[in-house]
Write a structure and sequence with these properties.
four-stranded mixed β-sheet; Rossmann fold; Ribosomal Protein S5, domain 2; five-stranded parallel β-sheet; alpha/beta; binds magnesium ion; binds adenosine-5'-triphosphate
């Protein structure tokens, strides 16, 4: 007779249900797993065998064949251990047959029979819920992450003995609870904008970038404070919605980067990879694909400090995710798509020595050196950056000034209210912020009057802007209007948006 239990696994960042079929037959004792298993699953045989024996349950002296269906997806990891063990024990009449209906088993086994945590339980549980299962048995460590999905009863078990007693109704286990309403955003803020003196226009640009999720480039001489300003960005990013939090948590869950105490990621990610990063680690990849930095920055910030130091081919791979908001990786076994809706913040020096354009005139670089340096950031990439601001070095007077500057909390309040306006406006459009506006939305949400059009035309002729730049100015102007709580974009908003856009001309020509 074939015995069937349910488990789950992840493909990309989405879960899928796996049927674990167990056949016990007479004949020479043996143990086989079929259904495109990888080596970790093949090793599962030894773990399951030892775990069952060491829990003092007899291991059937029969020919055991396990099939993991659907058989056309390559399966990896140790997630099926618990389901395989449950199947063998069930087929061996260790608990009533009806106990496995409607139940999904997720967990890795130790040789002593204890149940251990696995990666990616959140996306699995979301899929399990969709397939109308109601009960999950998993490790105690994974239980609260799994319980994030409402409508599932998650039963944590520490070992196989507990599982069998529970299924025989000899042991009572309370389902894990995870009260999502009680989550409070406990921002860990160790860097605040109140420590940054002066630089009002850069701070304003960062505020606009945070409010509308716009890409931003900071250009300035060494020591002018670019890194200092960018590192304070997490302190003013708007709060994430529950859907955004779930999406980010899914990615981190699959990548195995969720911290033990963290069930749901509430703070927007801020990733700052070093310039020696490879293009595969930036976009994701590997034999069994894993999300890269662009996906780990989903709904948050990807900060590239000293951007021209990154190899040109690495920078170029950013163009596609910046436009499509996702990365697709092709492998022999199929393609995987990871979301990558991130905000790019980059910092650059204007030339190799760093002082081109500085009032002191101490730049020693030749024209071709400057051109080569800035040329590493290609025109199309620069075009995708909405805000380009110059960070000027502070004067002694500004540095020694005792005047108190705005704290991150005050700025974040404005950013949050501007983002709420956007969330409300785009409620039925499937987008979250102004930076995601597509051409079809632009004509509806970024309408401008004649005066505003004239100003834009003037800027266009003067700065030779591209069609993409035109749309980006309008999107930034929309965010400035939202920060102003204004219904319509007016000339003041357009003027400020243009002011944050023209910098590339100064260094490029
Ligand atoms: N506006 C400012 N207010 C207070 N301190 C500042 C300011 N700007 C710079 N500093 C000081 O200067 C230091 C250097 O700044 P930072 O490292 O951010 O410069 P940078 O522009 O990234 O330089 P580089 O191009 O060399 O990387 C900071 O750690 C900080 O102590
Ligand atoms: Mg720096």
């Amino acid at each position: 007779m074939i015995y069937k239990v349910y488990s789950s696994s992840v493909y990309g960042i989405n879960g899928y249900i796996v049927n674990v079929e167990i056949d016990l037959s007479n004949g020479l004792p043996g143990f086989d797993i079929v259904g495109l298993p990888d080596t970790t699953i093949k090793e599962s045989k030894e773990r399951v065998k030892a775990a069952i024996k060491n829990s003092n349950f007899g291991f059937p002296n029969k020919r055991i064949t396990i099939n993991l269906a659907p058989a056309d997806i390559k399966k990896e990891g140790s997630v099926f251990d618990l389901a395989i063990a449950a199947g063998i024990l069930g087929a061996n009449q260790m608990f009533p047959d009806e106990e496995i209906d409607n139940t999904v088993f997720l967990g890795e086994l130790s040789l002593d029979g204890s149940v251990k945590a696995i990666k990616g339980i959140l996306p699995m549980c979301m899929e399990i819920k969709k397939n109308n299962f109601t009960r999950i048995i998993t490790s105690a460590e994974n239980a609260s992450e799994a319980a994030l999905v409402k409508g599932l009863s998650v039963y944590p078990v520490n070992n196989l003995i507990e599982m069998v007693s529970f299924l025989n109704k000899e042991l009572k286990i309370c389902p894990a609870v995870c009260d999502t309403d009680s989550f409070l955003l406990n921002r860990f803020i160790d860097m605040d904008f109140k420590d940054v003196k002066g630089q009002h226009s850069v701070k304003r640009a960062l505020e606009i970038a945070a409010a509308g999720a716009h890409n931003m480039l900071m250009i300035g001489t060494p020591g002018s404070g670019k890194t200092m300003l960018a590192r304070r960005m997490p302190s003013i990013l708007p709060d994430m919605t529950f859907e955004e939090s779930l999406e980010v948590t899914k990615i981190y869950s699959v990548a195995g980067l969720l911290k033990e105490s963290e069930n749901l990621i509430l703070q927007r990610p801020f990733r700052s990879p070093h310039h020696t990063i490879s293009s595969a680690s930036l976009t994701g990849g590997g034999r069994i694909p894993k999300p890269g930095e662009v996906s780990l920055s989903h709904h948050g910030v990807l900060f590239l400090d000293e951007m021209p130091e990154f190899p040109k081919h690495v920078l170029e791979v950013l163009r596609q995710p910046l436009e499509d908001e996702c990365v697709t990786i092709s492998r022999v076994n199929g393609t995987v798509t990871y979301p990558a809706k991130f905000m790019l913040i980059a910092s650059v020096n204007p030339c190799p020595c760093g002082f081109f354009g500085d009032e002191s005139g101490r730049c020693s670089c030749s024209a071709s050196q400057i051109k080569n340096y800035m040329g590493k950031i290609s025109g199309p990439l620069m075009d995708r950056i909405d805000l380009q601001v110059e960070v000027k070095p502070l004067k002694f007077q500004d540095l020694s000034d005792k005047v108190k500057t705005e704290s991150s909390e005050t700025i974040r309040k404005r950013v949050n209210s501007a983002r709420s306006i956007q969330l409300e406006r785009y409620r039925n459009q499937g987008i979250f912020s102004n930076s995601q506006l597509k051409p079809k939305h632009m004509s509806v949400y970024c309408k401008i009057g004649i005066k505003e059009k004239d100003l834009l035309r003037e800027a266009f002729d003067k700065f030779n802007l591209s069609a993409r730049a035109y749309n980006r100015i309008l999107k930034v102007a929309r965010t400035i209007a939202d920060l102003d709580s204004a219904m319509d974009i007016n000339i003041k908003h357009i003027a400020e948006a243009i002011q944050h856009r023209t910098l590339d001309k100064k260094y490029y020509i």
